[in-house]
Amino acid sequence: MAINEALAQKTAGAPFELLEPLVQERVRSDAFARFLEKPEGSMPVMPIPPETAKALGTDARVAILSQATMEKQLRHYPEMTREDYLQLPSIGAKPTMVFQDGQNTFVLVKLADGRWRYVAAKTTKTGKAAFVTSFRFASDDNIRRLLNRPSVKIIIDRREE
């Protein structure tokens, strides 16, 4: 846990551009590989885009993957591989789209290798922390349905870039 706290301190004042490599280093570690197999504690996995943080009113700069969520991931999305989890820093740093879906909930999606990767996350009520709540693949239909939901607000849309 001390390593994760040290990363949190290191990222606190870092420019957004440096967050992806800092988090990527942690996600590529042996400790993260062990966490994927036998979750204990929590791991920083994804930088939060500044536009997203501002829209949600959060001070959090990096989203955390908790032990409980990782255990749920293993049960519900066993098809997700370590290679997929290695994409989380990139999804946060360069998402194709980010949606706000509720006061404290946001979704980041990234189209890569012909597949949508979908990350649901939430901030705490105080706005001091953010947590990944789900990570999975999504279909074009899933993304279209999300875009058509009246309660969803688009924060970032880079589909034309």
What does it look like?
With 161 residues, the protein is an alpha+beta fold. The protein has eight helices and seven strands. It has a seven-stranded mixed β-sheet with strand order 1-2-6-5-4-3-7, sandwiched between helices. The protein is globular and about 40 Å long. It starts with a helix and ends with a strand.
Structure annotation, total helices? 8
Q: What is the first-to-last residue Cα distance? A: 38 Å
Q: How many strand units?
A: 7
- Describe the global form: globular
Give a summary of the structure in a few sentences.
42% of the residues lie in helices and 29% in strands. The chain has eight helices and seven strands, in the order αααβαβαααββββαβ. A seven-stranded mixed β-sheet has the order 1-2-6-5-4-3-7, sandwiched between helices.
List the keywords.
single chain; 161 residues; alpha+beta; seven-stranded mixed β-sheet; globular
Question: Which helices and strands occur, and which strands form pairs?
Answer:
Layout: H1 2-12, H2 16-27, H3 30-37, E1 42-47, H4 50-56, E2 62-66, H5 67-76, H6 82-85, H7 88-93, E3 97-100, E4 105-112, E5 115-123, E6 130-138, H8 140-148, E7 153-157
Parallel strand pairs: 2-6
Antiparallel strand pairs: 1-2, 3-4, 3-7, 4-5, 5-6
